[in-house]
Design brief:
8-stranded parallel β-sheet, 10% strand, globular, alpha/beta
C-alpha cells in the first residue's frame, strides 16, 4: 500500500535544538538513545538505523551518503530551510510537541509554529521541578501545581509523564501526608542547583493528582513506556505495571497513551489496549530506530490484539529535523506492508485497510486530542 498521500499527525515529538547548541552536538548522537561517548563516537555508526538513514538523508539532500558531506550540505541550507524540506517530504499536517526535554537547549514552540501547526504537550515532572524550589509549604505547592493544570493551559492537548524514567511504572497509591513528608525531605536536600525529581512517592502522588485533572477534562496523558536512554530501568518499563492505575475507577476517563510501542513489550501493550478502554498506543521511537525487520515486527505485534482505533503514529523526533522525515517514511511504508499482509491473511479487506491506515496515521489522533470539550 502506498500511504504517501495521507497527511500525518505526529502526536508525540520534541523541539529542535537551538543552532548555538547544535554546533556542539555530534550529528551521530541523534541516532542513538545512548549518550556514552564511546557509543556516540563509534558504535552508533555500526547500527542498521544509522547506515540506512545516511543513504535516505543523502538522497533527499542530493549529496554523498557520508556524514561529513551531509553536515556540510545541511549547514549550507540553514536550519529553517532544512526543517521545511523535511516537514514537506514527510507530508506532516501537525505536530504535538513535548517541550520538556532539555528545555534549556531547544527552540521555542513559536519557532516551529512558523513552519507547521503545533500543539503543546505539558511534561508534569518539569512543572514540579520548576515549582518545588520556589515554594516552601507543601499545601501551597500542591495548590499551585493544581492551578497550573486545571484548567489545562491554552494550546495544551495532553499531559506527559516520565515516571518510567525516574522511578518506574509500578505507580502506587500515596497519601497526601506521605507526599508532604517526602516534599519536605526533598526541600532539606536541595542545594543551589537544578532539581531533578527522582523521589518515587512524590512522583507517584503528583502523577495521580494530574490523572484526576485529566479525567475531569478527558485530556490524554502520554506516558513513556519501554526502552529509552540508560536513565531508565527497562525492567520497570513494562506497561503491565500500570494495572493499579488502569483498575482505579477515578482515572477511568483519563486516556493513557503508551508511547514508543512499549518496545520490547509490544504484545503486553497491545493486550492492555485490547481490554482497557482508556489505553492507547503509538509506535514512535521504535520507528525509525529499529532495523526494517524490527520496525515491521513491532507494528505487526502491536496489531495482533490492539484495536486499530487505539493505535497512532508518532516520530518521537528530537534535536534534528531528519528524525521527523525518517519516522514518517518508515511509519507509512511498514504500516502499509503490515496491512497488506493482513489482507493476504484475510484479517481485513482492501477497503478496510485503507480506512485503518488513515485512522492510524491521522484520524485517531485528531479524535483523541480534539474531541476535548
Amino acid at each position: 500500500m502506498n500511504l504517501a498521500e495521507i497527511p500525518l499527525i505526529d502526536q508525540h515529538a520534541h523541539n529542535l535544538l537551538r543552532p548555538e547548541v547544535a554546533v556542539g552536538y555530534p550529528y551521530a548522537a541523534a541516532f542513538t538513545e545512548g549518550y556514552d561517548p564511546e557509543i556516540i563516537n563509534y558504535h552508533v555508526r555500526h547500527t542498521f538505523f544509522y547506515r540506512r538513514s545516511l543513504r535516505e538523508i543523502a538522497a533527499l539532500l542530493e549529496c554523498e551518503a557520508q556524514e561529513a558531506a551531509i553536515v556540510v550540505r545541511r549547514d549550507s541550507l540553514g536550519l529553517e530551510h532544512l526543517t521545511q524540506l523535511y516537514f514537506s517530504a514527510a507530508n506532516l499536517e501537525a505536530i504535538y510537541l513535548d517541550d520538556g526535554l532539555q528545555p534549556e537547549t531547544i527552540l521555542p514552540l513559536s519557532w516551529h509554529e512558523r513552519l507547521i501547526p503545533v500543539q503543546r504537550i505539558l511534561r508534569l515532572e518539569v512543572l514540579a521541578e520548576q515549582l518545588i524550589p520556589q515554594i516552601d509549604d507543601f499545601q501551597t505547592f500542591l495548590a499551585t501545581f493544581h492551578s497550573e493544570l486545571d484548567p489545562p493551559p491554552s494550546g495544551v492537548v495532553a499531559f506527559k509523564s516520565i515516571a518510567c524514567y525516574r522511578s518506574g511504572l509500578n505507580i502506587q497509591p500515596v497519601t497526601e501526608e506521605v507526599a508532604a513528608a517526602h516534599f519536605y525531605q526533598l526541600k532539606q536536600q536541595l542545594q543551589n542547583q537544578p532539581l531533578r525529581l527522582v523521589d518515587k512517592p512524590l512522583i507517584d502522588f503528583l502523577f495521580q493528582q494530574a490523572l484526576l485533572i485529566a479525567a475531569k477534562y478527558r485530556l490524554p496523558v502520554q506516558l513513556h513506556t519501554g526502552y529509552g536512554d540508560p536513565d531508565l530501568d527497562l525492567r520497570l518499563a513494562n506497561p503491565l505495571y500500570l494495572r493499579h492505575l488502569l483498575e482505579s475507577p477515578q482515572y477511568r476517563h483519563a486516556p493513557l497513551v503508551l508511547l514508543h510501542a512499549s518496545y520490547p513489550y509490544m504484545q503486553q501493550a497491545g493486550y492492555l489496549a485490547s481490554v482497557y478502554p482508556q489505553v492507547y498506543l503509538d509506535f514512535g521511537l521504535a520507528v525509525p530506530f529499529l532495523s526494517v525487520s524490527g520496525m515491521r515486527e513491532t507494528i505487526r505485534q502491536l496489531l495482533e490484539l490492539t484495536p486499530t482505533s487505539k493505535l497512532m503514529y508518532s516520530s518521537d523526533a528530537h534535536s534534528i529535523p531528519e528524525l521527523y522525515y525518517l519516522g514518517a517514511k518508515w511509519g507509512r511504508q511498514l504500516l502499509g506492508e503490515v496491512l497488506e499482509q493482513a489482507i493476504r491473511d484475510s484479517d481485513i479487506t482492501v477497503s478496510e485497510a485503507e480506512a485503518i491506515a488513515t485512522a492510524i496515521l491521522r484520524e485517531n489522533a485528531l479524535f483523541l486530542y480534539h474531541s476535548i470539550k
